[in-house]
Design a protein that fits this description.
There is one protein chain. By secondary structure, the protein is α+β, with helices and mostly antiparallel strands. It folds into two domains: 75 residues, 3-Layer(aba) Sandwich (Aminopeptidase), CATH 3.40.630.30; 54 residues, no CATH class. Helix content is 20%, strand content 18%. It has a five-stranded mixed beta sheet with strand order 1-2-3-5-4. It has a two-stranded antiparallel ribbon with strand order 6-7. The termini are far apart. Keywords: Hydrolase. This is Nudix hydrolase 2.
Length: 180
Amino acid sequence: MSGAEQLAMPENTIEQVELLTSVNDAHGGVTVNIEQPMDSGVFAPLLKASISQWRNQEKKGVWLKLPIEHANLVESAVKEGFRYHHAEPNYLMLVYWIPETADTLPANASHRVGIGAFVMNSKREVLVVQEKNGIFKGTGVWKFPTGVVDEGEDICAAAIREVKEETGIETEFVEVLAFR
């Protein structure tokens, strides 16, 4: 074949692009756990292509778990917009928020405070909901509105906020029924 001759792909051919292996989470995001050694020159384009795919799939948060032996990939991830979330003795967790909306990925904490709101109206009817996300999604289970208290947020304000977010209903905080 001479230098002027080229192999052309037919117009209707789709080129397969390799992506990072990920697992969908219960909140519309993905988790990537890098387990095999990888050169940063190979990782960077895989990460870029994967983010593009996740954006097309309308994913939200990306959690990238890098074991300590894969620290060579941190710079490539940070250049793509990832930020540090937390570190443990044997891994580093980086996160990336895809949508052009406020980042709702939870901050790392030494603990997490959850609330469940018991709401009763003047007719003594109790408010229950079905989850749109989470482990009870699509199961037909009815439950109290629940959620996680944001860092620095008052627990009473969190209960009111979670009910409003999940149901659109304005409530008034009266008392703590239980704490565990």
